[in-house]
């Protein structure tokens, strides 16, 4: 018997636990030359803002050990052009679409969600909270529990379908933020966005990114995000979407064992745009070989004595 | 809609050191070989390895029957790794990507200005010009003569070296200006270090129809990441080097990356 | 002319900016078969506690992409045996000794420092604050600014020589902690300890470390710690010691350009126990080639427009 | 004080596949070759690369004149990489490390029990026994016959396979017990999977003088990291496998890592 791969995030059902990570798959159609984008659990769009954004000055990307730094600066065509130009293409490709949204003011998140609520084919929104809060002097929304709660509450009022809150990992205790999202009615949390990082060219003594600091993604961060997925899945009842450093199907399985319901893949797409195909195959075979009938059985199956987990027993 | 591109597992046919630190690697890559045009590129990655993590962009240097060649200077992780592959070893190529140079025709004279690994474009442009009956001249610059690659069967290559050890003593943009001598009827194609492109844009692009192949850092090469912006000279918006380029009309873009 | 490599941390002068990282060089003598431990800026001991500690159950180490996870659990012979058995060996080897200390109660840090204050050859103490605070329910000391301030104040009273406070990176804004340490009279801060991480064996579905989570070190964390060194060096006047992912001399130079005064090397010693030798050489040649007369000239020489650095402008 | 050890850049002489998935790589490593004793190990790393990041521990399989051999099963990053090196390629060896087996003498009979990559110890123990005039018997277990390595010139090797395809049908500890048949005058040396060591400790170590070479994860191999604890059977404190072992008297330790 073939193992059951489908999973649910709120009311939306994904045919398998794989999702693209925002900002690493364009608007989805760019991948359609490499594999059938209808076969993946969900396509998550680049972060959409109310107005188009041209993004940061270059250089915007740099490679580091087992990872990359980026400071794209939310370059995107804006939510309206997305709805007009890109959504119809995604519908035609039978993709399950999740729109990732970003803004500098809480009200703007609500306005974005409201615009998208009118489009049935947008099955869920994912809130990117790793943006500077202009009112609060540029602190990331995602590092302020109150700001997060306000945004989720406002979006919940205008968007009835699945709301996923994408958390930033750059905080002392990410589970506080996950609990706040759950309390305001979020259907799932994504753990996590990129980690603040930096690299310097020692010969020019210039930063490798124009913005000096950027977000670290790729295998380098996987153990960090793994610990956070485990922590959050023990702290909330809503599903956890893992995002960080997946490069092979084994990594997807590892996140599900740690407690994830679905798993986003990002940076790997740059080297292997057809990665989802072999990942779905690998997961399926692993489940069969390990006598699991479904993803649900594997989820959180870590064999662990929680008493062995000191708050922070290292060194 | 994007040009059709392929994710192809290619195998090495041979690698030769063609000048000091410069290599040409020929691989079997039938789908890409049959579809590439001059100025397009491929993203190269290594199966079963995440080091280097990101794919590397290389202009297609030549394509003939089933095979594709790359020309590169072994400077870092990716290029050193390719240079050490043995015949039969695999790589993954994603391509052809980007928009190449405009089509050539027999009506015009094409002046191709290259420096450093930009020389990769000489064989494929030469082959294309010959098939179209276009007349083509190459202007090829390097720091010193030992860095210049000699291409079999390619004629009309004018060398320039900074140290004067071969060809024109000076930079290749000066050489071009000397040769065209105010004649603005031809078309200039260029590929090479950014300072060279900036000089061409400023000193030649204003009067002669000029196309520049730009190099920016690229994470994906296919429009997924928005990592490769090139400033639009008009509205100040950004093009993406990978999808809208890497070849741009010199009047369309403005360079902002410190060269 | 040979460039000047010496640097100062408080009153203590190191002959070059390289230090071993606590817990990665035993008590120093273990390295003496591989290079002259008198040639390195400083040897920082394994964290010493008042009583000997046997440490955590195995497995304690696991390899991940460009890094390793550890949960040693502060296994050490205790401060008294260190003073009796190990310190005389280090003195004989002409090592400049910095004692790293750790405890579960603030008072114990002071007691440790007092014991070490009696030993002239202990030129500085480094406070490891990545330990569970038993009074506050096991929260790491290093994630609580008040706890950090109390400890530094108490140690400052009993220890007149250089005090270095080793910060944990697992906080929202590390510069808050650096400023607190500076305010209480610390002479330097080390940025930073390891990052909380986790890995799972997907076939046994057991965590790769007995304690489930552990500390991530190695090149994977270098861009993260680089960003924190840059941030902290802009926030305090006291010297910053960088610690995280150095594998080659270029990495040392990168940290110094970012603002570090000295640089610790840890995980690299496991593969290359003689790494300091070629690093000192590499740094020296780099300075000469780049026409810098001293480390001080290179320090913080990053060519950067601070206006390009948004608080968190990524994605 | 630790045994003297060397950080030696070694070069590959040759690699042979000696059984399915099992390789022997011989390298030139004069300092280590001259100083190693049976049961000691080396930490192997790769210059110019951080993947794998940590060095890997390997028992020295044989040492003769200037050369050292390793025997390993190609299961992961490190072993696959070593198996692909070509003659002349470099690695870095740190060793000899740890305490080896006790010295052998002509007075006693030595029973060496090995499984899997523990077979690495057969050549070096055989060579040592011969030089000391000690009498030695090997008991060598595997799942199936094709995994058994045949060692030229080594006699007295008794095979056991789980599937009965070669030698004794059953596990190697049963085989040993059958052969010594209650005679507790000899000495047992063992190296192999932890379940095998646990069985030996329980079923043989209580009556016969037994030494076990244990395998724990190791990050450094030289006492720097405290990553390789082995429980002391007495006070419950930990030994370090790398400095106090990897060979322990079976009565001195207790296994706590789930086997
Ligand atoms: C559209 C496009 C086409 C390209 N075509 C070619 C081509 O045909 N041939 C070719 O050789 N390269 C080409 N490049 C550049 C190529 O993608 C790589 O960046 C370059 O080959 C170095 O890769 P690496 O992995 O060896 O070096 P990396 O490991 O990425 O870099 C190692 C070090 O070398 C420095 N470095 C990187 N690139 C260069 C360079 N070009 N010159 C000097 N130092 C450098 C870096 O700063 C770094 O410190 C092209 C790039 C683009 C965007
Ligand atoms: C003192 C000591 C001596 C040793 N001597 C030898 C020796 O002589 N020959 C030898 O081959 N090994 C020996 N080992 C083990 C060796 O250090 C490596 O762990 C092993 O070779 C695998 O390394 P790798 O890099 O190939 O695998 P890794 O990349 O580290 O692991 C890849 C995968 O293989 C699994 N794995 C790791 N080790 C094994 C194993 N032994 N069997 C099955 N699966 C495994 C891991 O769980 C992982 O999933 C010794 C270890 C110690 C501590
Ligand atoms: C180039 C790039 C652009 C990104 N853009 C966004 C974005 O617009 N919105 C967002 O929520 N996350 C963005 N991310 C974060 C990814 O969605 C993902 O969470 C992160 O990269 C970690 O996963 P990975 O290691 O699989 O890439 C971006 C990441 C990269 C590498
Ligand atoms: C095995 C191991 C043990 C460590 N033990 C300690 C310790 O006892 N006290 C401490 O302050 N830091 C300890 N650390 C952290 C290191 O000192 C260092 O800050 C960290 O590993 C980052 O540097 P690296 O990437 O160069 O290893 C330990 C790290 C490792 C890998
Ligand atoms: S390189 Fe990714 S969009 Fe151009
Ligand atoms: S392996 Fe590091 S102390 Fe034993």
Task: Explain the overall architecture.
The complex is a heterotetramer, with 2 copies of chain A (315 residues) and 2 copies of chain B (259 residues). Chain A contains 9 helices and 16 strands. With 315 residues, chain A is α/β, with parallel strands linked by helices. Chain A has a single domain, classed as TIM Barrel, CATH 3.20.20. Chain A has helices spanning 79-92, 106-117, 145-158, 174-183, 222-235, 249-258, 268-271, 275-289, 295-298, and strands at residues 7-9, 12-14, 18-20, 43-44, 61-64, 67-70, 97-101, 122-128, 162-167, 188-191, 195-198, 200-201, 206-207, 213-217, 240-243, 262-265. In chain A, helix 4 (174-183) packs across helix 5 and helix 5 runs parallel beside helix 6 (249-258). Chain A starts with 6 loop residues before the first strand and ends in a 17-residue tail after the last helix. Chain B has 259 residues and is α/β, with parallel strands linked by helices. Chain B is 17% helix and 36% strand. Chain B has helices at 30-35, 77-83, 121-132, 172-180, 194-203; strands at 6-19, 22-28, 41-45, 56-59, 62-64, 67-73, 90-97, 109-115, 135-142, 157-161, 168-169, 187-191, 209-213, 229-232, 238-240, 247-249, 253-254. In chain B, the strands form 3 sheets. Chain B has a 7-stranded antiparallel beta sheet. In chain B, strand 12 (187-191), helix 5 (194-203) and strand 13 form a beta-alpha-beta unit. The longest helix of chain B has 12 residues, at 121-132. Chain B is globular, with a radius of gyration of 17 Å. The model of chain B has no long low-confidence stretch (mean pLDDT 93). The chains are: A alpha/beta (315), B alpha/beta (259). Chain A binds chain B through residues 23-26, 30-31, 33-34, 46, 54-55, 57-63, 66-68, 70, 72, 75-76, 206, 218-219, 247, 267, 269-274, and chain B through 2, 4-5, 7, 43, 45, 50-55, 92, 94, 216-230, 236-238, 256-258. The complex binds flavin-adenine dinucleotide (2 copies), flavin mononucleotide (FMN) (2 copies) and FE2/S2 (inorganic) cluster (2 copies).
């Amino acid at each position: 018997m073939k193992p059951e791969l489908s999973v649910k995030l709120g009311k939306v059902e994904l045919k398998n636990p794989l999702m693209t990570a925002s900002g690493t798959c364009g608007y989805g159609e760019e991948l359609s030359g490499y594999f059938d984008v209808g076969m993946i659990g969900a396509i998550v769009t680049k972060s959409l803002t109310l107005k188009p954004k041209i993004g940061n000055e270059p250089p915007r990307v740099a490679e580091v050990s087992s990872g990359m730094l980026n400071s794209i600066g939310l370059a995107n065509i804006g939510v309206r052009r997305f709805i007009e130009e890109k959504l119809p293409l995604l519908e035609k490709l039978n993709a399950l679409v999740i729109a990732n949204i970003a803004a500098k003011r809480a009200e703007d998140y609500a306005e974005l969600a409201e615009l998208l609520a009118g489009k049935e084919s947008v099955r869920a929104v994912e809130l990117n909270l790793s943006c500077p809060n202009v009112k609060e002097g540029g602190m990331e929304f995602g590092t302020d529990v109150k700001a997060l709660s306000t945004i989720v509450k406002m979006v919940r009022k205008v968007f009835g379908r699945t709301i996923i809150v994408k958390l930033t990992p750059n905080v002392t205790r990410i589970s506080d933020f996950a609990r706040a999202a759950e309390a305001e009615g979020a259907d799932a949390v994504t753990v996590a966005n990129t980690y603040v990082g930096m690299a310097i060219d020692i010969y020019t003594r210039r930063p490798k990114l124009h913005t000096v600091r950027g977000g670290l993604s790729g295998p380098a961060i996987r153990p960090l995000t793994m610990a956070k997925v485990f922590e959050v899945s023990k702290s909330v009842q809503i599903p956890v979407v893992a995002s960080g450093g997946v490069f092979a199907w084994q990594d997807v399985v590892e996140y599900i064992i740690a407690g994830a319901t679905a798993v986003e893949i990002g940076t790997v797409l740059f080297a292997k745009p057809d990665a989802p195909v072999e990942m779905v195959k690998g997961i399926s075979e692993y489940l069969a070989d390990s006598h699991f009938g479904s993803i649900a059985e594997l989820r959180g199956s870590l064999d662990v004595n929680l008493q062995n987990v000191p708050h922070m027993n290292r060194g | 809609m994007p040009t059709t591109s392929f994710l192809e597992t290619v195998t090495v046919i041979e690698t030769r050191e063609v000048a000091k630190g410069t290599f040409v690697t020929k691989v079997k890559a039938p789908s890409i070989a049959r579809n590439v045009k001059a100025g397009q590129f491929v993203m190269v990655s290594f199966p079963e390895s995440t080091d280097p993590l990101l794919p590397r962009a290389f202009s297609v240097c030549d394509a003939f029957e089933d095979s594709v060649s790359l020309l590169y200077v072994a400077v870092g992780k990716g290029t050193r790794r390719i240079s050490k592959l043995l015949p039969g070893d695999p790589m993954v190529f994603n391509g052809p990507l980007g928009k190449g140079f405009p089509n050539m025709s027999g009506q015009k004279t094409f002046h191709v200005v290259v420096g450093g690994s930009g020389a990769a474009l000489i064989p494929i442009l030469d082959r294309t010009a010959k098939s179209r009956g276009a007349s083509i001249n190459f202007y090829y610059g390097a720091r010193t003569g030992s860095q210049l690659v000699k291409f079999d069967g390619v004629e009309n290559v004018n060398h320039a070296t900074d140290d004067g050890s071969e060809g024109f003593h000076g930079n290749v943009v000066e050489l071009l200006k000397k040769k065209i001598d105010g004649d603005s009827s031809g078309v200039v194609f260029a590929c090479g270090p950014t300072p060279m492109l900036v000089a061409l844009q400023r000193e030649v692009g204003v009067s002669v129809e000029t196309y520049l192949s730009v190099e920016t850092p690229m994470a994906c090469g296919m429009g997924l990441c928005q990592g490769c912006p090139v400033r639009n000279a008009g509205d100040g918006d950004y093009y993406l080097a990978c999808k809208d380029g890497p070849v741009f009309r010199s009047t369309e873009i403005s360079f902002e990356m410190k060269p």
